Amino acid sequence: MQSYINSYIIITMENKINKRQYAYKVIRTRIVDGTYAPGQRIIIDQIAKEVGSSHIPVREAIHQLESDQLIEYKPNVGAIVRGIDNELYMETLHVLALLEGHATSLSAPHITPVGIEKLEGINKEMKEMLDNYELDRLGELNREFHFFIYSFCPNKFLIKNIQETWGRLDIVRQAGFTFFPNRTPQSIEEHATLIKLFKEHADGLKIEEYAREHKLTTLEAFKKRS
């Protein structure tokens, strides 16, 4: 009897967690892709019906999104989508610089010669897209460059945190003010230097510092934008 009760409790908890995760994914995706605009109220009843759950998993998902700084509560209004202002964007970039620096350092010893060739190919394509001024594709390639590096990182929890942080920046990218044309040629050169460090099997601390500064330079470009 006790075994049956324990099994029931475990199954119930798993179902609750799954519904919370599903609600979280639904709401987060809509925030990131712009379906839910900054300032838009999140209707708990509506989400609960869509995901087939009670209010509790949805509320827990909203609390998690609040921790992610994607949602905020306003008196007499409820949960609304949070817009990312300049200060929050800069703070997020700074955190990302620290996370990506360490992830790049951890990835470096595991990058294969074939991996090096792929990174060189991505960077070459970035140069071609810059010459053609294909800005949307440039952003995609930049993400592909860095996340391919992280595919060699043994710390998967670290990568998950980086992915979530990039997700927050995606909201800003919907507003179209994260591309800095004057910064991009330098960024491509920095990618080439990073590849060179990988080839030379440079010291991990040196790679970490360089990767961190690469991201912080983007932060400085944002501060100086006109």
From TrEMBL:
GO terms for molecular function: DNA binding; DNA-binding transcription factor activity. It holds the Pfam family GntR. InterPro entries: GntR_C (IPR011711), TF_FadR/GntR_C (IPR008920), Tscrpt_reg_HTH_GntR (IPR000524), WH-like_DNA-bd_sf (IPR036388), WH_DNA-bd_sf (IPR036390). This is DNA-binding GntR family transcriptional regulator. Keywords: DNA-binding, Transcription, Transcription regulation. Residues 17-84 form the HTH gntR-type domain. The keyword Transcription regulation applies. Signal peptide: none annotated. It comes from the Bacteria. It comes from Sporosarcina limicola.
